[in-house]
Write the structure tokens for this entry.
Amino acid sequence: MTNWPFTVAELTAGLRRYFAEPGLQVTALDERPLPDRASAASQRVRGLHVEYSAGRETLNVECVVKEPQWATRAGLAGAGRREAGLYHSLAAHLPMETPALIAFDLAGDWLVLEAVEADIASGAWSADDYRRAVKTLAALHERFWNLAEDLAAYPWLARPLTNDFEIHVYAAAQAVEKMMRDDGPHLIAGSFTVLSALGQIISQVEAIVQPLRAEPQTLLHGEFQPSNIALQEEGEIVVFDWELTGPGPGVLDLVVFITACRWERPDLPVACDELIALYRAEMAERVGVRWPDETWATLWDHALLWRFTQEMLDWAARAPREVFAARAAQFEDIWLRPVLATVERQLRPVLFI
């Protein structure tokens, strides 16, 4: 029998609310594979087939069970609490659909969500699908544009540029130390140029985030990428995995989207520059913000440096050797070389004695 993190009574109560059926009774639970979520191999995300009775009918529903507590960096608010909070408190205000929240633990240790299947696999997205995703991202940012004070009412949101800033910087510094101690991966630890650039990033991280903090803040998804988006044939977009949601400048979400698209699919059917230009045009029309090209280039550079600091250094330090080796060329092309060029443009040289 599968060991679920919830009781049958907790699931039954959630399903009764979800279906508005006070007499609903759960009759059977079965774990189901999630082929489209193979990346969550640690049983953090599992499929759940629920059979239940309502009146004289026997029915069933497909769900997803998430146990996100293992995905949270030490010192940060629980990822599950953030995602449950988003679905519970903010989903009705979003300009896109999200999975329905059926049941959850108040501490965020587990969530049971409606299973959502994409009609169009992310690997088969057309150029128009990527454009549709960018327009949806702009709609999200428009909805919460300049509402940082309002979002302060939700303490469970991620705040990597403010409250959580030092935790991310400490984790990045620890990642660099680990790579030097382990003498690998060689692409990083074997290059004095790369290590010098990482030293510049860590020592000047306050200067990196300063332009990002000065931008109007909106609600970020945090991991807005094709693997977290279900496209439906009728034009509907369902967005899930809101574990990193929180206030910040919209350019951060766009950097995540562009780099993830390149990471997942090197043969993109649309140019990244076109998607960036589309986002800027959408934001100009929606909220009237028009970034001069030079200002935008600086923002993009600083957003790229921050995301590299926040996520990719830790990934490079902790990825198994075979995993890093399989992705090394992409890592160098999408992240390392652009970051090195950005360090040269934006940061002061560091003198080593």
